[in-house]
Structures are given as structure tokens and as C-alpha cells.
Amino acid sequence: MSLPVKVLIIDDSAVARRALSNILSSDPGIEVVGTAPDALIGLRKISELQPDVLTLDVEMPKMDGLTFLERLMKSNPMPVVMVSAYTQQGSETALRSLELGALEIIEKPRLEVREGLNDLAFAITEKVKAAAMAKVKSPRQQLLKTSPCFDVDTVLPRRAVSAKPGNSPLIAIGASTGGTEALRELLGALPCGLPGVVVVQHMPAPFTLSFAERLDQTCRIKVREAEEGALVKSSEALIAPGDRHMVILRENESYRVHLKDGEKVNRHRPSVDVLFRSVAMACGSSAMGLLLTGMGSDGAQGLSEMLHAGATTLAQDEASCVVFGMPRIAIEQGAAQHVLNLEQMARLLIEQCA
Fold first, then answer.
1. Is residue 235 among the annotated active site residues?
2. Could you tell me the fold of the domain covering 152-353?
3. Is 298 a catalytic residue?
């Protein structure tokens, strides 16, 4: 039997510390080795207790969570799960924490903290265990929510692939834990002039708009959050909004976005499998599918369907993944024609789409 994941909780709220400690301790695969009311005490306890994972608040006395996170990742990189009361106002803060190295984010309730955290107990324990599996190699390296595990057929029944593939090529990308930084690196390397890009990144609803805007500031191609009916355009990437499935529909020789509610697929909405299946049906051999870092299996089935529809399929290699979960499953199932790092992926996209 594997050893339990050792967790240190850093939060200035005594109520939150107790609630998190009770929730995490209830899982036999997790051991809470200590708590700290501020970052400075937390830093000392990291040295003493050698935890596998930290849970970290953002607003704390003496040193705020982001400053602490930045210093920690430069001196002693380790898996960190942010636990923050910020949502809309804190979306920039949340994105900054992901850039600095946090692997997951828990949206801590502002009111009735104990009850609110207890409602998120399953997600909290799963995120902590997912973070423990991650490889943290740099300051820059998000979301498994509780739900039944529905199959992609629940949201998007399989249909025959069009006998006439669209003349317009399309690039579809799926990512989860570690994907925020992977997408920044991959999309940032792409020049203008390439086919339209559609992306599912597992991320809660309050963050996808800010994430797209931040990518747009650093990429040569335009990046924006997808809207219902949006046309997929060359030199542009559309990020699926949090909590909506993104489906690609063919319209003559163009493609449009359709956003769906429906059940979570593989415990995710948006789901990579839903996107990839829709691309296989709409684009056939005109598409390219990329499955990046992430925990779980979402995207593996869809990538296989894209391959059988004639698309070119790529999976991120283990060495460059933060969590080698989703790509590993796809590779094991024979769904990936190419297993590459992010730089090699960008180069292949440019070569094949030139």
C-alpha cells in the first residue's frame, strides 16, 4: 500500500484550517501533517514536516499567498493547491497563482466557510491527490469537480463522419492540470496564418475569460473566449468557456461553435472528449488533434475518434507533462500518431499547415 499524501494547510482563518483538516483527514489516502496561520510559520513548517502538498490561502497577514508562492517556487518547488475566497475579483489573482506554479484552485466560500468547504469535500481531496502526483519543475506549471462520470454519448451521440471532409483545416486542443502554462507556451509559438484553433482547458467558469484575455496579450494569434455561434477563423484561438461544452458544427466550408450545457463528461464540463468527437464528425481528415497534460482520461476516446476519421493526432510526451495522465491513456490506446513535447508540437503544426 502506498504511503498517504502528507499535506500542510496554510490559511489565516482558524475555521478554514479546521474544516480543511477535517475534510482531508477523512480520506485514508491523505495525512494532514500540520497547519499554519500565515506564510512565515508555514515556511518553517515546510522544513520541519516535509509535506508532499500545500494548501495555500491568498490573503494572509505578514506575507500574501502569491508572494509566498513565488518565493517558494523559486527556492523549493512543490505541489500547491490554492484555497481562495476570490472568484470574479480574484480571477486575475487565480490566474497569476497558476502562472507562479499552483496546480489547482479551490474557490473558498466567503460566507459559511465550514459548510461551503464541506460541500466541496470530494473536489478538495481529489485535487490534493492530483497535485501530489504532479511533477513540479519550474515556477510555471486545473480542475476535477465532483460529479457522476458520464460518457460522451450522454452529451453528444456519435454520428457518421462526413464523407466529404471540410476543405478548411482546424486545430483542436485539450488540456487539464498544467495546461494553462502548456497552452501559453504552445499558442505563443504559433504564427499568424495558421488554421483556426479550438481549445478545451479544464477550468472553472469565472476564470476562462481572464485566461483567454491573458493569452491574447502574449500570443501573436488572437485568443478569445468562445461565444455561441462564433465562427472559427484563421489566426485565432477560441477557448471553451468554463461550465459549457464546446461543439464544432460544420457550415458549408466553415465551422461554428455551439455551446451546450448537459452532463459533465468524465467529470468535466467542458469536456475534451465532447470537443474532439464534434471535430471528428465535422472536420474528418481536415483536423489536427492535440492532447496535452492533465489527470484522468478525458480526451483519449475523442482523440481516437479523430484518428479514425483521418485526422492527425498528437499527444504530449511524459517528460514535458506536469501530469502524464490524459496523454498516457491516449497513447496506450493507440490514439496518438505523434508523441511530442510542446516545441515539437508547434513545429509540426507550422510545417503541416504551411
1. no
2. Rossmann fold (3.40.50)
3. yes
- Options 168, 176, 271, 304, the catalytic residue: 176
28-68 pLDDT per residue, tens: 999 999 999 999 999 999 999 999 999 999 888 888 888 99
Task: Assess whether pLDDT exceeds 50 at residue 90.
Answer: no
CATH numeric code, 5-133: 3.40.50.2300
Average pLDDT over all residues of the chain: 88
How many other C-beta atoms can be found within 10 angstroms of the C-beta atom of residue 178? 27
Domain boundaries, the chain: 5-133, 152-353
Confidence band, pLDDT 50/70/90 cuts, at residue 1: low
Q: Given the residues 202, 245, 278, 320, select the one marked as catalytic.
A: 202
Sign of CA dihedral 132, 134, 138, 143: negative
- CA-wise closest residue to 137 among 182, 175, 106, 189: 182
Query: What is the structure's pLDDT at 60?
Result: 87
Active site residue 138: no
Number of helices and strands (H, E) in the chain?
12, 14
Enumerate the H helices of the chain as residue ranges. 14-25, 39-49, 65-75, 91-100, 113-119, 121-133, 179-188, 205-218, 272-283, 300-308, 326-332, 342-353
